[in-house]
Amino acid sequence: MLGAVANAAPAAAAIMPPATGPRALGLWLSFWRNSPARTFSFSFLRTWGGRYAPDVVAGQWWRWVTGLLLHASPMHLVANLALLLVGGVCWVVSEGGVGGP
Description:
Layout: H1 2-15, H2 21-32, H3 42-47, H4 53-57, H5 63-69, H6 74-94
């Protein structure tokens, strides 16, 4: 009886292969889509130093710096980090690599 159960496991795994390629990307993006549980409200971001023009005009100049450190969602942060990584690698390669001439 145990042999029959053990033999059934590989067949089930063959039916549902792990997500790879475009399917994996779609699943990952669907997880990070904006939802109320994964985003921050305007008032929360403003309280934590988000850049809001009327506040900057009123003399809160530090919002220009702190606003750069805030992100609206985890996906926003991940996208910014990915762009920084790709842009940084392209820049280093165009300049001759690390420790170039």
